[in-house]
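User: structure tokens for this one?
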Amino acid sequence: MSTDSRITRAEAQALARAALAEQRPGRSYGLGCLKNEDRPMRAQVFCAAHPDEHLVVKVFAPGLAEKAQAQAARQRDVAAQMQDGPWRAPEVLFFDPARLVLGMVYAPGPSLAELWPRLPAAKREVPLEASGSWLAALHRPTLQTRKLRPRGQLEWLAAQLAQAHETGTAIPESESFSLRLAELEALFSETRGKPATRAVTHKDLHLSNLVSAGGALWGLDFENGELDAPYRDLVGLLIDALATCPEPDAPGFGAALARGYGDEITAPEARLFLQRAYALGTWARTPAAPSTRQRARLQAAKMILAADRPLF
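Assistant:
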């Protein structure tokens, strides 16, 4: 049984078939689930297959109407911006607001999350550099030069630490976290006002949201439409790459992402502050009893924090 914030596979399939019947009358589609977990989820994603067409159908839980509408609107904008060339986003084919069903072009290829752990060390830079280039293409239309204002990030991190102490839900290794936060606070005066950038970011980017298909790299799962720091996306990709690689290399992976991204604006002092701030953000969100995945991401964040120079 679904709740307002979760929907079962069977319920989502019924909604997907009803939406397809209206959007593609006279056609019968097979529905293959693209997520290998048969449990209630915030959204269920299917490949809808017909001899003449394959498309992706995403069905949102009933309480997520605002999220579904935001994703459909943002993906339309991004797909128009990235409709050809090597850096792409799937076109929105339809959105059914009553059923919360989003139909989009299917990119028939593996995600970087599937490819990444199996790549030999000599070839790991290639997908990371491509990911950086894809990210630059996403940010470029809205990229703005701004002075770095670090106070907000410092206050947010301090608030997470204070809340953990107040509620008794401790951040893992909170003493070490406090020391790292103090080191970041010490950078305030030398980083405040340094050149940096803002752009409409992805804000939830990881390797499973990038698909290699048809000679292009396709990004998925857009929603954010607000300006933010691009380094949130860069650090998010680096953490995912480090956490899922048998031989993590923070300087090498960061350099590959940086070559693809090509930031010529952000000052080195600002880069160092931002990579540490977003790594501490991952640490602050890690529960006291982390899962295997969360523990790997925490270790990746610590690798970034250990770097004494910008990784990007």
